[in-house]
């Protein structure tokens, strides 16, 4: 047989041990790692208990810390019975006492000094050597405004001037950059904010025109003006004031006075005009006569320089005039003035009483803002350097205060203290009214004098030197009562913070003023 031959052998199956072992370890082919075992567990402990925030007292600790108070109740009752009558007697005496009548607790910090908080000016006005002619606070007491003009140059009506405002509560106040600057074509002689609408402000111009600005309108602030008509003043307007209008609720009509002798009341029209509502004229022949007064005769108009309304009778007001005297007037006057005018409204004669005159023109008058008999008091000042304290009931002054060689441009009662008032002055000799435009050449220093009649009725309680030029105008702040603004001939407004004793009313101070006035009369 052959060595090698073809043959077929049966097949053999070999089972894979690797594949079976892998299948045993993995339940799913899609999972590379083995299954992770998990269990639910709370993040906080599952047991809790209540505990007090303080340690529990033990009997021994309580005895050491707190001893029971032993009260002798029979002894206490016996003591109260013994002092009962004396205590009730003292309580009744205190209940009837008026020692603290009118006293109010003041929780603010006491300030015993007068300091200058702000020195405000507008560089554009100072470059023109313009003076501050008037200052006024708005109804909130946060904004002070000043008017610029010139009192030492006869060419007033052709020179541009300004009205500027600063909000003293504004963060980042820049004393050399007013919040609002209004360009005015003529010198602004006087200024007055509306008593209840903080953004409304009225001004009187040297040209005789009266204007009203809305300080919230920076682009075009003029909202009313008189224009130049037959009703407009023909001389400079030296004071404007807001008169409450009883027929129109909270509305107020505007009053202006001028050296043309007219006192005019204006109403607002929708077309932006101020229309004449009523008017008065002071004529020498119609001023009530007094054997102590020497008044000019004839039908000549008497120039009006200042005005102040009674705070309690809106019909009564006082005016100061060029001739050096003050007049008590009334809006209820019916007699027609002899002053001839071509205006749309007939003018009436308001004067009821003439007071003893100053030796020079009266620059300023101010009625007392306080109650009872004090409402009959007013102040006047002029170029004779005197302040007169008058009662509306008699012609002779109750007090005449002479401030040396100084003559006075403005006087104002404090809005919070019945016995305090301020006066603005410049050093110099009294001048006739014709020289008013040239008075600066005679004035060398400007001062603010603060009088406290409780301390003295003859000399200031404090005199503040503001600068080397006269102080022309003053305004107390009725809201922030420690603030007093004063404007001067350098074009600067200084805001003074007054001391506590000048701004905090003492008990029964109004009665003290009445008593003082009564003693002086007697």
From TrEMBL:
UniProt keyword annotations, A-Z: Cytoplasm, Repeat, WD repeat
Location in the cell: Cytoplasm
GO MF annotations in UniProt: dynein heavy chain binding; dynein light chain binding
KW Translocase (keyword) present: no
Single Gene Ontology BP annotation: intraciliary transport
Entries under Gene3D superfamilies matching the protein: YVTN repeat-like/Quinoprotein amine dehydrogenase (2.130.10.10)
Pfam families in the cross-refs: WD40
Major place of residence: cytoplasm
Region (Disordered): 41-61
Source superkingdom: Eukaryota
SMART domains: WD40
An annotated GO cellular component: cytoplasmic dynein complex
Protein name: WDR34 protein
Organism name: Rhynochetos jubatus (kagu)
The gene coding this protein: Wdr34
